[in-house]
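Structure ticket #2291
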Amino acid sequence: MDIKAKIDEVVNKVKSDDKFAEKFKSEPVKAVEDVLGIDLPDDVINNIIEGVKAKINLGDIADKLGGLFGNK
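Resolution: structure written out below.
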């Protein structure tokens, strides 16, 4: 299984679907399993959740920094 691809898939869903983003915030395990359509072991799900959170947070930081320098 390509974990990076799964993380990207969930990140794209979070960014494009506000309702899903709220679900991810409140029930990340259920949200990830719904997007992927499979039940995964807890350690795999947790790795995906952490990867998604990291990418989302980095994106938010990049947007804020870009705004500081007039690049937004």
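Closing remark: The longest helix spans residues 42-68.
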